[in-house]
Write a structure and sequence with these properties.
It contains three helices and ten strands. With 195 residues, it is α+β, with helices and mostly antiparallel strands. It has a six-stranded mixed β-sheet. A two-stranded antiparallel ribbon has the order 1-2.
Length: 195
């Protein structure tokens, strides 16, 4: 009998599906200490993402952005630094900065579910911040999303979310200024955000 005479039936193959995390399940694991304390993780679209450690330029840009945003009057909102945002049922990112409604005491029992402005500082994460994170923020109606682009030393401002995307993009150089939608009277020099 030759190999050609054999009738081989190859079973149908399928790629195993990845487990999709819900935000509730992810928070349960976080609350019982299921991840190492030094882990830099966030949940986005049902996937747990291992974030790279912060470089000094990233940390400096976060501090500069925090200082600049704290000069703005956001009314009944405040600036949160690298804290979870309960974005939807499958996403709990930890943006570098977020302006959220209310006060810190409002979130003693649950993370905020909305933001007026989100700021991400990007170097190695630039592609991820421009695509996956931008899509998640737009789908959930975050009206304004800034990416401090350390590679090109510009501020990318995304506005007008519709259909899961931002319909407007502005790229501002270090010599320009930006005013958050939620604090239109506040003018921030882009240079002030760059280390």
């Amino acid at each position: 009998m030759s190999v050609n005479d054999l009738s081989l039936t190859i079973p149908e193959t399928r790629t195993p599906a990845a487990y999709r995390w819900s935000r509730v399940a992810y928070e349960r694991v976080v609350n019982v200490g299921g991840f190492p304390p030094e882990a830099r993780l966030e949940l986005l679209d049902g996937e747990i993402i291992d974030m790279s450690p912060q470089k000094s330029q990233h940390a400096a840009a976060c501090d500069l952005a925090e200082a600049a945003l704290r000069t703005c009057d956001f009314g009944a909102a405040y600036v949160r630094i690298q804290k979870p945002l309960a974005l939807d049922d499958t996403s709990e990112p930890e943006p570098d900065l977020a302006v959220v409604p209310g006060t810190p005491r409002d979130y003693a029992d649950a993370h905020p579910g909305q933001a007026l402005l989100i700021v991400e500082v990007a170097d190695s994460s630039l592609g991820y911040d421009r695509t996956r994170k931008a899509g998640a923020y737009a789908r959930n109606g975050v009206p304004e999303y800034w990416v401090i682009n350390l590679r090109e030393r510009v501020l990318e401002v995304r506005l007008a979310p519709a259909g899961g995307v931002y319909t407007q993009l502005q790229r501002l150089s270090a010599d320009e200024q930006v005013a958050p939608i939620a604090a239109p009277g506040c003018r921030i020099a882009v240079r002030a955000l760059l280390p």
